[in-house]
Amino acid sequence: MDNYFPKWNQDRIVYQWKNDRLRIGADDVDVLEITGYSDFWSDLISCCNGINSFEEIKDLLRKKYDISENIIEKYISKFSDRNLLEILDRPVNQIDHYLINESLETYYSSEGIGGIKLLEKLSNLKVTILGCGAGGSHIALQLAQLGVGRLHLVDDDIVKENNINRQSMFTFNDIGKYKVDCVKDCILKRNYQCVVTKRKLKMSTVDAVKKEISESDWVFCCMDEPPYIAQRLVNRACYLFNIPSIYCFSQRSAGKLLFCNPNIQNIGCVDCLLYEQDSDNFQNLVKKFSNYDGKLITANILTNILLLSSWVVKKWLDCVTEKNSNVWNTLFRFDFYSFREDEFKHFSKQSHCPTCGHDFDKSKLWEILKIDE
After folding, report:
1. Residue 257 covered by a domain
2. Which GO terms describe its molecular function (predicted)?
3. pLDDT tens digits, 101-126
4. Domain of 48?
5. Which of 8, 10, 162, 246 satisfies CB 3.0 to 4.6 Å to 48 for a cystine?
6. Rg for the chain (alpha carbons), in Å?
């Protein structure tokens, strides 16, 4: 441990309390209290500044307190296990852009999901966002602000007047501009380290989606039109390339979320979920949706959009960090009224699925929801 650099997470207040006690933290559920030798503990914590090496910390404390190296190492390890400090492999002042990411690093370390290591992992990810409307644009921004290093934005739409009141990234000055241009500009103003590429394209075939998602680590499908078809196109392309994907939808009262991953055995996909719903009634319903030629207005508010995008991105972060990776084979629902997440629909991998199955069933559903390869 001599060449490592302990760094105390400075999101917890450290203060002396009654009868020579040291208290760490003010959170209702996460306060550590140490009895006795409060001066020693205060000095130990002060030494763990991310610049002093473990060897230097040992020397400083042994001179003042005549304490063994093993005890110092033991308690630094205990603090690390409690997510109170992070063990760095180099001094914090040698980490590029640390001050920009200080809040992120402290949060990640205090949550026990990685600190600097997680920042480095996120910075090496490429995430593709398909659809940069209200949901997709806010998801892209939040991913960039989490530290995702590369984003690819795809959308052929332009900003319209009726987009403004449910967005926080577009202004009236952006009307007539391409959404991907506006989203890229907004992201780079907040995280200039993020590499953002964009494509002004309407994706209507699996091949078109494949060209946009190649080399991606994750794909977010934020397209809602045409219903079912858009999700099927992305699902097929992601399975052909073995890329995990996320599908999110928003209605006036709730948002829905689905995770898919072709790299994990027995995990179903979008088509598996559709196959489980297949019936004459479902097929008739899909036909009604597909043939509807009336004008629909997106009935939603920015408040709900921000709730949805934050929920989606946080679920993704928990999955990536394995803090909660139990997200598969479930359609999740987030209620905008109760602020509650529910497991709306469970499903399983289907052997008759046209995308990930091995015994394709030629249901009429796939003719109704036909996709072009």
Report:
1. yes
2. nucleotidyltransferase activity; thiosulfate-cyanide sulfurtransferase activity; ubiquitin-like modifier activating enzyme activity
3. 999 999 999 999 999 999 999 999 99
4. 5-95
5. 8
6. 25
